[in-house]
C-alpha cells in the first residue's frame, strides 16, 4: 500500500498551513579580523536578503542574524558568505557549534516539511483496507475434515 493511500484511509489531511512556519532562529556569524572591513561588507550583502533580520553584537567581528528555519539555514548563509570571499572564524569551538547547529536545523527542517506520520491510527488503515477488499469466510476444506471426532 502506498503511503498516500494509507494517509487518506486514516483521514489525514495535508492541505493545512505548514507547522513551524513561525520558528525563528537567532544565530551569530563570526568573522576573522583579516581582511579588515569585511563585517561591514557582509552586513550590506545580508541586508539584501528578504526575511533576514540583522543585529550588531558587542563583538566587532560578529553579526547576529534572525531567520525562519523554513527560509534559511546557518549553513546556507555561511556557505554563501564564504563563496563571496568572506573569511569566517574557524576555531575549534566555532566548528563544533557550527556542526551542531547545521545538524539540528537540517533535522528540524526535514521534520517540519515531512508529512504527518501515522502513529496512533495506523491500525485503522489496515482495517479499512481489509473492508475494501472482496473477501469472504469460505474454506474449501470439506466439513468432515474441519471437525475433529
How are the SSEs ordered, and which strands pair?
Layout: H1 3-9, E1 24-30, H2 38-47, E2 53-56, E3 62-68, H3 74-83, H4 92-113, H5 122-132, H6 143-146
Antiparallel strand pairs: 1-3, 2-3
List its salient traits:
single chain, 149 residues, 3-stranded antiparallel sheet, 6 helices, 3 strands, rod-shaped
Describe the structure.
The chain contains six helices and three strands, in the order αβαββαααα. The protein is of the alpha+beta class. A three-stranded antiparallel sheet has the order 1-3-2, covered by helices on one side. Strand 2 (53-56) and strand 3 (62-68) form a beta hairpin. The model has no long low-confidence stretch (mean pLDDT 83).
- Mean pLDDT across the residues is 83
Count helical runs: 6
> How would you sum up the major sheet?
3 strands, antiparallel
Give the overall shape. Answer: rod-shaped
Structural class: alpha+beta
Helix content: 40-55%
Order of helices and strands: HEHEEHHHH
Radius of gyration: 27 Å
Report how far the terminal alpha carbons are from each other.
42 Å
Poorly predicted ranges:
none
Largest sheet: spatial strand order: 1-3-2
Total strands:
3
Strand fraction band?
5-15%
Summarize the structure.
The chain is of the alpha+beta class. Helix content is 43%, strand content 12%. The protein has a 3-stranded antiparallel beta sheet, covered by helices on one side.
Amino acid at each position: 500500500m502506498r503511503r498516500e493511500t494509507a494517509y487518506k484511509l486514516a483521514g489525514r489531511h495535508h492541505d493545512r498551513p505548514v507547522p513551524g512556519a513561525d520558528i525563528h532562529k537567532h544565530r551569530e556569524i563570526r568573522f576573522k579580523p583579516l581582511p579588515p572591513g569585511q563585517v561591514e561588507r557582509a552586513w550590506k550583502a545580508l541586508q539584501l536578503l528578504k526575511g533576514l533580520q540583522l543585529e550588531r553584537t558587542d563583538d566587532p567581528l560578529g553579526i547576529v542574524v534572525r531567520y525562519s528555519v523554513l527560509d534559511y539555514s546557518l549553513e546556507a548563509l555561511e556557505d554563501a558568505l564564504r563563496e563571496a570571499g568572506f573569511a569566517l572564524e574557524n576555531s575549534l569551538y566555532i566548528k563544533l557549534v557550527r556542526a551542531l547547529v547545521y545538524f539540528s536545523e537540517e533535522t528540524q527542517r526535514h521534520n517540519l516539511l515531512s508529512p504527518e506520520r501515522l502513529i496512533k491510527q495506523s491500525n485503522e488503515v489496515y482495517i479499512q483496507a481489509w473492508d475494501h477488499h472482496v473477501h469472504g469466510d469460505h474454506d474449501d476444506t470439506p466439513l468432515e475434515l474441519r471437525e475433529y471426532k
